[in-house]
């Protein structure tokens, strides 16, 4: 080892524990996904603080397994421990157990573990450059996305987001043509179709798993003004058709974002609007590294899912999860012939929302 690389013992130990904590985060995703799936956070919210015997009695699960799980959860700081009892703080209750709260994120653990089966296929992707499509991950990927983005789309899209978009609510009430591109499991489509029965809604998605979920969700709801299609068989019309196009976390994922943006422009009427949600990030990696509170999480999703999907054709753009930020979006939409670009006030830690017009 060269003089310049001489190891500082204290820094070595510090770095070792830093890495050990990251290794531990891997176990935490698995064990918290399990807790979420078994309803343990909801049970703790309902009956906590409890000891493991009481939790076993409440859930019907095996006490020894629960005791070890609770101890793990206390060690990572997700569950509080005092006097032999385990419980959730009011904040932990929201993030881990309140499915319809904007800060609910227990679904994130499962979104991470659902990427584990893809890992053996990624060394090849690093060699060839070719990533996995959404459907290469199996049905789990579409289901996890549905759960992660569902809250906003079910409870905030119609009452909070759309009223911020100048003139759109009146048009939707009167009867408008709407496309949700990259509609996933159809949650946004369904929320809008139920709220605006005089309008018609078309969802486009290239993932057959997502389309299957969307068709099931639409059929269960009984709405008759919404349908979903795969644009590889039925592309968006190449003529001004839609009053509103929405995309929720799609452009950074797609293999050909410039072509998709141009297709949206061509399908939009001249007085139409594109409401685009995409991942909030800074224009430079240096800023993401220094200031983005979720940069590591988002780069993790990028390598395993988003950038991978965007590289799933040999000429894929590979924008990546943090790659369609405001600066890039302004440039690419301007290049495609859009002349107005506004950032909507509505937004959250993960997403920025843009009002984009011809
Ligand atoms: C991150 S998911 C978001 C799904 C949904 N909008 C939501 O918020 O849950 C991105 C979706 O875009 C779809 N997608 C990617 N490129 C597309 C394209 N060119 N046309 C239609 N769908 C596309 C993917 O299949 C995937 O379902």
Walk me through the topology.
Layout (H helix, E strand, L loop, with lengths): L8 H29 L2 H8 L4 H8 L3 H14 L3 E3 L2 E3 L2 H8 L9 H7 L8 H7 L10 H17 L1 H5 L6 H7 L2 E5 L5 H9 L4 E5 L3 H14 L4 E4 L12 E7 L8 H11 E12 L5 H7 L3 H16 L15 H10 L4 E8 L3 E7 L1
Bound molecules: S-adenosylmethionine.
Write up what this structure looks like.
The structure is a single chain. The protein is an alpha/beta fold. The chain has two domains: 97 residues, Winged helix-like DNA-binding domain superfamily/Winged helix DNA-binding domain (Arc Repressor Mutant, subunit A, Orthogonal Bundle), CATH 1.10.10; 240 residues, Rossmann fold, CATH 3.40.50. 49% of the residues lie in helices and 15% in strands. The protein contains 16 helices and nine strands. A hairpin with a 2-residue loop joins strand 1 and strand 2. The longest helix is centred in the N-terminal third of the chain and has 29 residues. It is globular and about 65 Å long. The model has no long low-confidence stretch (mean pLDDT 95). The structure holds S-adenosylmethionine (SAM). S-adenosylmethionine binds next to helix 8.
Average residue pLDDT: 95
Q: Any idea of the CATH class of the largest domain?
A: Alpha Beta
Q: Give the strand order, joined by hyphens, for the main sheet.
A: 5-4-3-6-7-9-8
User: If you compute it from the alpha carbons, what radius of gyration comes out, rounded to the nearest whole angstrom?
Assistant: 23 Å
Q: Identify low-pLDDT runs.
A: none
H and E string: HHHHEEHHHHHHEHEHEEHEHHHEE
Q: What's the shape?
A: globular
The end-to-end distance, rounded to whole angstroms, is 60 Å
Here the CATH topology of the largest domain equals: Rossmann fold
The CATH architecture of the largest domain comes to 3-Layer(aba) Sandwich
How many structural domains does the protein architecture include? 2
* Quantity of strands, as a count: 9
Superfamily (CATH H level) name of the largest domain: Vaccinia Virus protein VP39
Largest sheet data: 7 strands, mixed
Backbone structural class: alpha/beta
Bound molecules: S-adenosylmethionine
DSSP summary: helix tally? 16
Q: Which percent range fits the helix content? A: 40-55%
For this structure, the quaternary state is single chain
Q: Please report which band the strand proportion falls in: under 5%, 5-15%, 15-25%, 25-35%, 35-45% or over 45%.
A: 15-25%
């Amino acid at each position: 080892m060269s003089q310049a690389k001489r190891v500082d013992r204290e820094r070595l130990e510090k770095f070792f524990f830093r890495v050990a904590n990251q290794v531990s985060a891997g176990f935490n995703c698995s064990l918290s996904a399990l807790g979420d799936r078994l309803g343990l956070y909801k049970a703790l919210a309902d009956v906590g603080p409890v000891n493991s015997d009481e939790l076993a009695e409440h859930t019907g699960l095996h006490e020894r397994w629960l005791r070890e799980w609770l101890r793990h959860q206390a060690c990572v700081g997700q569950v509080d421990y005092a006097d032999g009892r385990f419980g959730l703080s009011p904040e932990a209750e929201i993030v881990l157990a309140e499915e319809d709260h904007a800060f609910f994120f227990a679904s994130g653990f499962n979104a991470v573990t659902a990427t584990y089966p893809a890992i053996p296929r990624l060394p090849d992707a690093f060699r060839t450059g070719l990533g996995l499509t959404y459907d290469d991950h199996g049905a789990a990927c579409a289901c996890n996305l549905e759960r992660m983005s569902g809250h906003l789309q079910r409870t905030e899209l119609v009452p909070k987001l759309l009223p911020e978009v100048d003139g759109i609510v009146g048009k939707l009430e009167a009867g408008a043509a709407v496309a949700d591109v990259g509609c996933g499991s159809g949650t946004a489509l369904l929320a809008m179709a139920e709220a605006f029965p005089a309008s018609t809604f078309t969802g486009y998605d290239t993932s057959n798993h997502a389309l299957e979920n969307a068709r099931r969700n639409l059929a269960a709801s009984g709405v008759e003004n919404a349908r979903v299609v795969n644009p590889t068989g039925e592309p968006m019309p190449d003529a001004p058709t839609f009053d509103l196009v929405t995309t929720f976390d799609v452009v950074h994922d797609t293999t050909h974002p410039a072509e998709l943006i141009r297709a949206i422009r061509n399908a939009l009427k001249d007085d139409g609007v594109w409401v685009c949600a995409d991942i909030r990030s800074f224009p430079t990696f240096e800023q993401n590294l220094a200031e983005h509170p979720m940069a590591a999480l988002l780069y993790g999703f990028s390598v395993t899912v988003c950038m991978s999907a965007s590289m799933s054709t040999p000429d894929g753009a590979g924008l990546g999860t943090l790659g369609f930020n405001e600066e890039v979006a302004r440039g690419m939409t301007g290049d495609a012939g859009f002349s107005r670009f506004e950032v909507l006030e509505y937004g959250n830690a993960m997403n920025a929302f843009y009002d984009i017009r011809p």
